[in-house]
């Protein structure tokens, strides 16, 4: 009788690529504390960290909600509902994010505000509705809107694939027990689909965080914009963009590790 396979040691389970990156990050952080030049760059660039995180979180949560609603429409048997959202998904996935950012910031946003003013002019004049100008729709919100529309299409395809990956027998069994379509979707299909959707959803979150750097073209004071301004003023391009890359790497690798740990936890829970 053969012996059961031995469990790999804790040392063998260490992801060495991550350990190397952590060592490099610690070294760069130590350099930032020891060197006045790098310390000033860390302080300056770090001022845009909150903006980067805020834009990424708001856009991702909004795109997750919108993408889920779009995915439910995609799997709907009603063609009058599924066909328009298919067109939306194809258009949003086909337009580069930078172009979409410019389009919403400088074309759609002002047009919507102008349409609001024209449609509700009597109510605005009477004081029933507030008057809104283009300046009230800040560039940060325009960036969040553009990222939401762009990524909702990708998330919709992820959610749709997860829903369709659940065996039809699960739906049939739930309906045989008397569950409604909504109850079947909420209690049976989506919990099982989540395990399939988690890796690509985590990948979209990392991509969203990186693409948030595009908001710098609108002058939004994120990490990239502050790094661009600081390097132009000091001519420390290598040092500044090394620190900018460091901030993004810490955030993206941290998110990747968290998603992988969540995947492992779900697998252990499933085996138990």
Automatic annotation (TrEMBL):
Segments crossing the lipid bilayer: 58-76, 97-119, 240-259
Residues in ABC transmembrane type-1 domain copies: 49-259
Gene3D superfamilies per record: MetI-like (1.10.3720.10)
Keyword rRNA-binding attributed: no
Bilayer disposition of the protein: Multi-pass membrane protein
Major place of residence: membrane
Localization annotation: Cell inner membrane; Cell membrane
Organism domain of life: Bacteria
Coiled coil (residue ranges): none
Keywords of the record: Amino-acid transport, Cell membrane, Membrane, Transmembrane, Transmembrane helix, Transport
PROSITE patterns with a match to the protein in the record: ABC_TM1
Pfam families xref list: BPD_transp_1 (PF00528)
InterPro entries: AA_ABC_transptr_permease_3TM (IPR010065), ArtM/GltK/GlnP/TcyL/YhdX-like (IPR043429), MetI-like (IPR000515), MetI-like_sf (IPR035906)
Recorded family membership: Belongs to the binding-protein-dependent transport system permease family. HisMQ subfamily.
Function as written in the Swiss-Prot or TrEMBL entry: Part of the binding-protein-dependent transport system for glutamine; probably responsible for the translocation of the substrate across the membrane.
Name the record gives this protein: Polar amino acid transport system permease protein
Organism in which the protein naturally occurs: Labrys wisconsinensis
């Amino acid at each position: 009788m053969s012996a059961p396979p031995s469990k790999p040691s804790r040392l063998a389970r260490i992801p060495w690529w991550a350990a190397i990156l952590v060592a490099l990050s610690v070294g760069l952080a130590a350099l930032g504390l020891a060197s006045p030049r790098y310390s000033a760059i860390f302080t300056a660039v770090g001022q845009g960290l909150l903006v980067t995180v805020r834009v990424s979180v708001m856009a991702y949560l909004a795109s997750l909600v919108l993408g889920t609603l779009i995915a439910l429409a995609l799997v709907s048997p009603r063609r009058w509902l599924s066909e328009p959202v298919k067109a939306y998904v194809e258009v949003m996935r086909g337009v580069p994010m930078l172009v979409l950012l410019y389009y919403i910031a400088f074309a759609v946003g002002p047009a919507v505000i102008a349409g609001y003013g024209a449609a509700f002019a009597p109510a605005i004049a009477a004081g029933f509705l507030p008057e809104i100008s283009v300046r009230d729709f800040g560039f940060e919100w325009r960036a969040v809107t553009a990222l939401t529309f762009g990524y909702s299409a990708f998330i919709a395809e992820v959610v749709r694939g997860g829903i369709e990956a659940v065996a039809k027998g699960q739906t049939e069994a739930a309906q045989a027990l008397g569950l409604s379509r909504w109850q079947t979707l909420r209690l049976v299909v989506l919990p099982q689909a989540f395990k399939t959707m988690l890796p690509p959803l985590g990948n979209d979150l990392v991509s969203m965080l990186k693409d948030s750097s595009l908001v710098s073209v609108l002058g939004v004071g994120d990490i990239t914009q502050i790094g661009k301004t600081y390097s132009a003023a000091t001519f420390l391009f290598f040092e500044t963009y090394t620190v900018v890359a460091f901030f993004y790497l810490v955030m993206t690798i941290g998110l990747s590790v968290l998603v992988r740990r969540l995947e492992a936890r779900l697998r252990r829970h499933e085996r138990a």
